[in-house]
């Protein structure tokens, strides 16, 4: 079976546009949306962009996060979570798995599938894109920054600091997967 990349999106407006720009360039991807992501994507007017990727989209509609079964079937070589809200980061850092995206991260960890996470709250002071092309100032709390640091200690997990690093981690990972397939 040709393994695919799982890409999860959470309800973050910050770096949503930039994350989708990277996602658009990739093939063999399935998209997973948190409930908040499904709303935010519409608020920012990015639904057409998601549709245009042609990728299969899984929504967070079940209590047990049924799509995570796909990890146990070996369907995915890697999981990308970008952008990841402070909410999802906090839950993942403390081992919660009570939503589709936190379940994907937990099951990826338990099946030793490599994860790449981009946390939108990575610096004490940020400028963030709001709906309708507005820009707002955001000051992530110490707990938000601490949770990102905590997540960096997880095995099989890379936490990207910015979009360039996210792109770099994804490209390295895809190259490594292709190399393993070729051997
Ligand atoms: C317009 C809008 C933009 C948002 N942007 C962010 C953001 O950049 N970062 C963040 O952590 N939360 C942001 N939120 C809040 C999250 O969507 C909210 O905490 C939600 O419960 C996250 O759920 P999820 O982590 O399951 O996706 C935003 C909410 C709205 C309405």
Supply database-style keywords.
8 strands; alpha/beta; globular; binds flavin mononucleotide; 183 residues; 8 helices; 6-stranded parallel beta sheet
Structure report:
- The chain has 183 residues and is an alpha/beta fold.
- Helices cover 43% and strands 24% of the residues.
- The protein contains 8 helices and 8 strands; from the N terminus they run βαβααβαβααβββαβα.
- Helix 5 (86-93) crosses helix 7.
- The site of flavin mononucleotide has 19 residues, from helix 2, helix 5 and strand 6.
Structure described in brief:
With 183 residues, the protein is an alpha/beta fold.
Shape: globular
Order of helices and strands: EHEHHEHEHHEEEHEH
User: What fraction strand?
Assistant: 15-25%
* Ligands bound, unique: flavin mononucleotide
Our Rg estimate from Cα atoms comes to 15 Å
Work out the helicity level: 40-55%
On the 0 to 100 scale, the average pLDDT is: 94
Q: What topology does this entry show?
A:
Blueprint: E1 4-9, H1 16-24, E2 29-33, H2 35-43, H3 47-53, E3 56-59, H4 69-72, E4 76-84, H5 86-93, H6 100-110, E5 114-119, E6 126-130, E7 134-138, H7 142-152, E8 157-160, H8 163-182
Parallel strand pairs: 1-2, 1-4, 2-3, 4-5, 5-8
Antiparallel strand pairs: 6-7
The structure holds flavin mononucleotide.
The site of flavin mononucleotide has 19 residues, from helix 2, helix 5 and strand 6.
């Amino acid at each position: 079976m040709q393994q695919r990349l799982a890409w999860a999106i959470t309800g973050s407006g910050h770096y949503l546009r930039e994350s989708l720009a990277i996602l658009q360039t990739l093939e063999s991807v399935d998209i997973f949306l948190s409930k908040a992501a499904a709303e935010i994507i519409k608020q920012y007017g990015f639904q057409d962009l998601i549709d245009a990727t042609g990728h299969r989209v899984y929504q967070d509609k079940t209590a047990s996060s049924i799509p995570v079964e796909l990890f146990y079937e070996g369907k995915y070589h890697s999981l990308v979570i970008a952008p990841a809200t402070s909410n999802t980061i906090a839950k993942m850092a403390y081992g919660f798995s009570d939503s589709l995206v936190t379940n994907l991260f937990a099951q990826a960890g338990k099946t030793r599938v490599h994860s790449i996470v981009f946390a939108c709250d990575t610096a004490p002071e940020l400028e963030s894109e709001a709906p309708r092309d507005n820009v707002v100032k955001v000051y992530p709390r110490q707990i938000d920054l601490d949770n990102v640091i905590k997540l960096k200690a997880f095995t099989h997990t890379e936490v990207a600091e910015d979009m360039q690093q996210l792109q770099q981690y994804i490209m390295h990972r895809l190259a490594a997967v292709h190399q393993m397939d070729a051997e």
